[in-house]
Design brief:
- This protein is mostly helical.
- It contains 13 helices and no strands.
- About 65% of the residues lie in helices and about 0% in strands.
Amino acid sequence: MERALRRQPPAFSAVSRPQARIKNAAGRPVTAKREYRRRHTLPLVTAFFHWVEQQLQDIALLPSNLFTKALAYVHSRKGPLQVFLEDPDVPIDSNHIERQIRPIPLGRKNWLFCWTELGAEYLGIIQSLLSTCRLQGVDPYDYLVDVLQRVATHPAKDVAQLTPRLWKEHFAANPLRSPLYHVRKPA
């Protein structure tokens, strides 16, 4: 019985509960968020990695076992997996990124009809650009209309300003519009 209890990892939900509080504390200073994470999450993460080390030392698990491989994977990435403890702006998971790239696997069958590898590559670039717009809170339509008009006259040395993140800072307040923007739809 004791051995079975020892095998139970610290629950992920226990680690994610303090993260929800940090996410809701948008107005709190970074130092307060970091201290909260150290106080509430660090002990859980430390217990998890201690449990991983115990499991890796267990001679009952063969090196070829998939569970052993998963434990070794986690153990080898201990440092990068703990970055979120030091920087409160780093989320504990990548769910927001996964939601953004979800249309990509959903469209794979459609992309079989890109005709060429170059067409598929350009489609990937456009998908990445649209996802980046959504992550930055930029309307992809407004962004593309503005950038496609601006790119011909924009200085090449400042091309980075046309990325969605910097475009939002420099041009989002007054974007270039299509001539069709002011055309009203019939009621």
